[in-house]
Amino acid sequence: MADQFICGIDIGSSKISTLVAVNSPDEKEPRIIGFHTAPSRGVKKGLVVDIDQVTAAVDQSVEKAERMAGQKITKAFSSVGGPHITSLNSHGVVAVSNPQGEISQEDVDRVAEAARAISLSTTRQIIDVAPREYIVDGQPGIKNPVGMSGIRLEVDSHIITASLTNLKNIDRCFSDLGIENSGFVFSGFASAEAVLTHTEKELGVVLVDIGGGKIDICMYCDGAISYSASIPIGARHITNDIAVGLRVSLESAERIKLFLTKEFQGYGRRDLPIQEAKKKNDNIDFASLHLPETVSDITPKLLLDSIIGARIEEIYKLIAEEIEKSGFSSNVPSGLVITGGGAHTIGMVEMGRKVVGLPIRIGFPTGVSGLVDEVLDPQYATNVGLILSGGKNIIDHESSMKKFNQIFKDISIGGSVSKIKDLLKQFIP
């Protein structure tokens, strides 16, 4: 197998990031060879609101990533998220086609299609179908039924849908830049691929991707995704609160937020608990930030309690409501794994534990090599997840094509009718 180039473009409310990786048969992990982040324009709460601005921002990010990688980007996977995302669990049933009762990949594909047969509005489109479990002749909990014996095959699937209009707008952006869209991936699902461990998925865990304008949620139970949702609030709302509370610009508010996080949490360099930060009675020295505005004296405790803490509490209350709504609230002993750019915000972990009452950790992406110094950060979890899930899709597609070629090769000029039937069964729904 030759080297495969994979590109993932994360179109967020605060930034647009492009990640280029290469899948090599000699390496276990995708190797990052190109990366660039551009400020997001024309995106609000995960929705495209100005197509020209989005196209220009994507073009800027892609061009710089191409230069770094030395590779022209012609195909890319795209993330999608925001309040237009909805999910549901569906059930599919088929009879096993083999007279001997051995379940084939064809049967698995047919039952997956049966689960997809749901009533859907013309304004919605399915972007992902993930099997939760298979049931063979009434026996549940089966992860891979291929090769097993049975007569009746069922599947419980998790289906994620998105606004068709928004998907078409993203496709238009890609098309204008000469990029083929390899597929859409829910940003919460992509982040989960990058930061969650196998043990966490098996025990039950909630992935919370905190972006600038929205929060994407994925819940895993018994190793499979069981619930997805998105909340139209994010880290930018904390910045807005600081701007209003201190009467400064949004740019200054963002610098203040980052300053607090580095000063009292240090992105892992200095782990000063938030309680210790609150005990500091000295006013915060903003002189080093060189802000254009004059900021009145304020202590860390006042800023954390009155402004930042209030918004973080609201965020976690909304997350707790979604967990309760899912019906799986008692099946997530691993707690919450928070990722995304907002995960670094000061007090996000400590305050979250108080509100939700579950263990919380910050999720850092793993599973890639190469130029990872900047990439292995929570804010790029979605990008890394796009690369990982995209690599799996390419491998699955290649194996299907190999299978097709083998069957076609076996059919002679005077080939039997049964072989032609086998070919049609496998590749025509």
Layout: helices, strands, pairs:
Elements: E1 4-11, E2 15-23, E3 31-39, E4 43-44, E5 47-48, H1 51-69, E6 75-80, E7 86-95, H2 105-116, E8 124-136, E9 139-142, E10 152-163, H3 164-176, E11 180-186, H4 187-195, H5 198-203, E12 205-210, E13 215-221, E14 224-231, H6 235-246, H7 250-264, H8 274-279, H9 300-326, E15 336-339, H10 348-356, E16 360-362, E17 369-370, H11 381-410, H12 417-427
Parallel strand pairs: 1-6, 3-17, 6-11, 12-15, 15-16
Antiparallel strand pairs: 1-2, 2-3, 4-5, 7-10, 8-9, 8-10, 12-13, 13-14
Helix pairs in contact: 1-3, 4-11, 6-7, 6-9, 9-10, 11-12
Kindly state the number of beta strands: 17
By CATH, the architecture of the domain at 4-81 and 165-207 and 366-394 is named: 2-Layer Sandwich
**Strands ordered across the widest β-sheet:** 11-6-1-2-3-17
Rg, Cα atoms, Å: 24 Å
* Termini separation: 28 Å
Question: Can you tell me the residue ranges where pLDDT is under 50 for at least 5 consecutive residues?
Answer: 266-272, 397-409
CATH class of the domain at 4-81 and 165-207 and 366-394: Alpha Beta
Q: Give a short account of the largest sheet.
A: 6 strands, mixed
Given the helix and strand composition, which structural class is it? alpha/beta
- The oligomeric state is single chain
Mean pLDDT: 85
Strand residue content? 25-35%
Give the overall shape. Answer: globular
Strand/helix succession: EEEEEHEEHEEEHEHHEEEHHHHEHEEHH
Give the % helix. Answer: 25-40%
CATH superfamily of the domain at 4-81 and 165-207 and 366-394: ATPase, nucleotide binding domain
User: What is the number of helices?
Assistant: 12
CATH topology of the domain at 4-81 and 165-207 and 366-394: Nucleotidyltransferase, domain 5
